[in-house]
Design goal:
- This protein is an alpha+beta fold and about 170 residues long.
- It has a single domain, classed as Immunoglobulin-like (Sandwich), CATH 2.60.40.790.
- The protein has 2 helices and 10 strands; from the N terminus they run E-E-H-H-E-E-E-E-E-E-E-E.
- The chain has a 5-stranded antiparallel β-sheet, with no helix packed on it. A 5-stranded mixed β-sheet has the order 2-6-7-8-3.
- A hairpin with a 2-residue loop joins strand 9 and strand 10.
- The radius of gyration is 20 Å and the shape is flat.
- The N terminus is likely disordered.
């Protein structure tokens, strides 16, 4: 069983940021993928593949969406994101009231050597978004990187009970 985050001594703090909206982040990424998909389409003389194939090829080439696990507990959520090869200073974690965005503009290094026969290592900018089912305390989100696993602790917002409002006569 893994040690609780408070007992892990070799972990590194990751900078978290509050974002009012992730819309601009998504729009920028979509525009970049769209430009690359068009470049792929325009460079292919036979145009045998369709627009969806070009879009998916551009997305695979440009964006690394690392695998993640999301668990819910009484306090909120714990997200674990596999980001091998990245350092804590390379990773940004953004939070809104209901979303977490993990991103990095640093690509893991390519394998050394003259001839690469197989490479299944991830490439591209990290861009992974998670929409959570409950509102969160975005000011209290914290993240730590340990052994290539980014652990993000996301406290859920407390639901306030209904308040009786007096009716004036």
């Amino acid at each position: 069983m893994a040690k609780p985050l408070s007992e892990q001594k070799l972990s590194h703090k990751v900078h978290t940021q509050k974002s009012h909206s992730l819309t601009q982040e998504f729009d920028d990424m979509r525009e970049a993928v769209m430009r690359r998909a068009y470049e792929i389409f325009a460079s292919r003389p036979d145009h045998l593949a369709g627009p969806l194939d070009d879009w998916l090829a551009a997305e695979r080439e440009m964006v690394w969406q690392p695998p993640l696990a999301v668990a819910e507990n009484a306090e909120g959520y714990v997200l674990e994101v596999a980001v091998p090869g990245l350092k804590a200073d390379d990773i940004e974690v953004h939070s809104t009231e209901g979303e977490i965005l993990v991103k990095s503009s640093v690509c893991p290094p390519s394998p050394a050597g003259d001839t690469v026969h197989v490479c299944e290592l991830p490439r591209g900018r990290v861009f992974r978004s998670v929409t959570l089912p409950r509102r969160i305390e975005r000011d209290k989100v914290s993240a730590e990187l340990h052994d290539g696993i980014l652990s993000i602790t996301v406290p859920a917002a407390q639901i306030e009970a209904a308040r009786k409002v007096p009716v004036a006569a």
